[in-house]
Amino acid sequence: MKRNRVTLDQVAKAAGVSRATVSLVVRKSPLVADRTRDKVEQVMADLDYVRDIGAARLRNNSSRTVGVVVPNLLNPFFTEFLSGAEQVLGQGDRVVLLANSHDDTQLQSQILQRFRGHGVDGLILCPAAGTDPALLTRVRDWGLPVVQSMREVGDSLTDYAGGDYIQGMRLAVQHLVDGGHQRIAFLSVRARTSARAERLRGYDLALAETGATNAGIVETDLTWEASVSAATAVLACRPTAILCFNDVLAAGLMVGLRHAGCTPGRDVAVVGLDDLEMAQMVWPPLTSVAMHPVRIGASAARLLTRRLADTDAPVLRESVDPQLMVRDSSRNEKI
Question: Using one digit for the tens of pLDDT, what is the confidence trace for 248-257?
C-alpha cells in the first residue's frame, strides 16, 4: 500500500513550531534561527518528510528541474562535468535531467522537445556536431533559458562556460619544446565542433610561438578502437612527440603505439588534454593538461541559475584556466 505523504502540518506539530516556520526551513530561508532550523530538519528526517515538488511547481510555475544534454556519456569528461553542475544546482533545490545526444542533431532535437514537454526550467547544452545556430533561437523563442558549455554554436547567442583550450594547447606544446621536441603531431577528432577548432587554433599558435614543426594532423573517431588504430598513421608522420585531442584518444593511441613496437615515454612523447583519472591509470602515466570539467560544470550551472533569476541579463562567457600535469609519458629517455 502507498504510504501517505508526511505534511508540513505534521512536521510543525512534532517540532513545536508553526507551519510557516517549517515552510521557511524547507525553502532554506535565512530568516530561521540556526537552533530552530536544526530542530525542524531533524524532525523532517525522523518523519521521512519529502517536499511536494508538484505543489511547489503549481505555486511558483517552476518544475525545479534542469535539462543537461551532452554528446557522449562514454567520455568520463562529461561524467565529471555533470558532477560539478549537480553540486551547484542541488544547492538551489533543483534536479538534473540528463540526456545523451550521441552527437546526433536529430536525436538532440527530440531530446529538447521532451525536455520542453517535461517543463524543465532551463537547459545546459553541449551541442552535437553540426548543430544549426537557429536551434538556439528556437529554444529562446520557447522561453527556455539555455547555457552552452564546452562547445558553442552561433556568436554569443547564449551564456557559455568552457575551458581555455587554446591556452591548454600552448602549455602542452611549450612543455614538449622545452623537452627538446621539434616535430610535434596532433591526433584530432573528425567531428567539426568549436572544441576542435579551438584546439587547432591553439596548436597553430603554439607552433608559431615556439618555432616547432607541425609533423602532421591525423583525424580519427572519438572511440577506443579508432584511437588504437590511428597509431600507424601518426607514426608515419615521424613525430618525436604527439599531442592528442583528449585523454581518451591519448590512452588508445599509447596502446596502438606499443602494438607497433614503439614505447610511449621512451621512443615518443605523448600528451593528452583534460587530465581525467585515466591519465594516472594508463602506463606510462599520461602527461595531460587539466581542463577541470567539474569546475566547468559548476560554472555552467551558476550561469544558468543567474539566467533563470534574470532572463534579460547580459550574455556572459566564463572560461576555466588549464593546468599542465607532467608525468612519464612525455619524459623521453631519447629524442
Answer: 999 999 999 9
Residue 9: what residue type? D
pTM of the model: 0.81
C-alpha cell recorded at residue 182: 621539434
In this structure, are strands 317-320 and 287-290 parallel, antiparallel, or unpaired? unpaired
Strand partners, 320: 163
- Residues 129-158: tens digit of each pLDDT: 999 999 999 998 888 999 999 999 998 899
d(CA 190, CA 209): 26
Of the candidates 137, 168, 141, 194, the residue with the CA atom closest to the CA atom of residue 317: 194
One-letter amino acid of 81: F
